[in-house]
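Q: You know discrete backbone vocabularies at least as well as I do. I have my own habits and do not want them to colour yours. No explanation is needed for now; the record alone will do.
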Amino acid sequence: MKHQIVCAVKIRHRPRHDSVDFVSLLERTNQIIPVSTVLADKGYDSERNHVATEKLGILSIIPPRYADVPVYKTRGYHRKMLKRHGYDEITYHQRNKTETVFSVTKRTSGDSVTSRKIVTINRELMYRVIAYNCQRIVQNNLLVVVWFLQSRFEYFDIYTN
């Protein structure tokens, strides 16, 4: 979240809730970069998601879906604990950065897909994500890119002499 980089993507062509893909995307992201905290909105509040994050050693901050329901009527250990003890509101509001990523991607790449075939739709969407990530890397880590290029030129100079 600090650099607002997209680590894993799941493209669906039919309307379906994202909670189905939550665990698989979390596992894939955790393989790429270690995840310490997961922030999600109320739509992802299920005991299955809380248990999966605990198995991976990740703290999950997902607000309860029905805040007005008493704790004794809430199902699941993790969901009850979250209702009893609450969650860190300041950390949870970092989730707004996710919405920022969606907004920037739509503003820079457009919000409609021009392709017609499923294969080319997938490619177009993946290229948009790659372009967004490249843009963020250049904006945030310009010094790292310069260092990388300098190290390449030094390598080139060593073997040309």
Summary: Confidence is low (pLDDT under 50) at residues 153-161.
